[in-house]
């Protein structure tokens, strides 16, 4: 609860909706069921009522299913993105689609640690294949979910991320000048299911 409240304590606008990516087949997978249970508790904790999804969990009535490949626009609404154990390209695409200071400041991401990505991926590869993650690192605040021995495989390397407007505005102007859509033509380990292949789903 402390981790998920951290962005709100820092002044981030409370999310009005949630978008979920990457939940696997929770009817037959204990890991996916635990992730779904945490999502439902998280929505209750934050009092978020609308939820769009792709990859396993049916959306609540009202909002459309989330676009595949992570290319979801906030469209002005503060939004929580629940993306546990998703591929790096999904995060990169999401950042690209909302690449503006005022928009990113309304976003909270629960997913793979950006600090962990920075530590594990060679900087040259990170900047070439996942440039939006690389560029936003210094504008990101991150709090890791506490570890629990029962859920080491379920929520390992998972953090809550948010993007304070002040930190974003302190980034160099050239960071915001390039808004080219990612293509991943040179990426050898692309962890994403393309639009024409169907919705993304995490393996069980």
TrEMBL record:
Lineage of the organism: Eukaryota, Metazoa, Chordata, Craniata, Vertebrata
Gene, per the UniProt record: Srrd
Domain of life: Eukaryota
Gene Ontology cellular-component terms listed: cytoplasm; nucleus
Protein name per its UniProtKB record: SRR1L protein
Ranges where the SRR1-like domain occurs: 12-49, 68-162
Pfam families found in the cross-reference section: SRR1 (PF07985)
Family named by the database record: Belongs to the SRR1 family.
């Amino acid at each position: 609860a402390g981790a998920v409240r951290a962005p709100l304590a820092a002044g981030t606008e409370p999310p009005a909706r949630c978008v979920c990516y990457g939940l696997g087949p929770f009817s037959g997978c204990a890991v996916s069921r635990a992730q779904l249970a945490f999502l439902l508790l998280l929505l209750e904790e934050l009092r978020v009522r609308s939820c769009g999804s792709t990859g396993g969990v049916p959306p609540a009535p009202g909002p459309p299913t989330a676009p595949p490949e992570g290319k979801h626009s906030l469209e002005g609404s503060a939004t929580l993105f629940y993306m546990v154990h998703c591929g790096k390209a999904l995060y990169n695409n999401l950042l690209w689609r909302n690449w503006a200071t005022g928009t990113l400041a309304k976003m909270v991401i629960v997913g793979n640690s950006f600090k962990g990505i920075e530590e594990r991926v060679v900087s040259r590869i990170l900047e070439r294949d996942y440039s939006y993650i690389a560029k936003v690192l210094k504008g990101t605040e991150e709090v890791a979910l506490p570890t629990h021995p029962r859920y080491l495989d379920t929520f390992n390397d998972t953090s809550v991320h948010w993007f304070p407007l002040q930190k974003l505005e302190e980034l160099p102007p050239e960071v915001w000048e390039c808004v080219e859509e990612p293509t991943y033509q040179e990426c050898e380990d692309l962890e994403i299911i393309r639009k024409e292949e169907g919705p993304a789903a995490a393996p069980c």
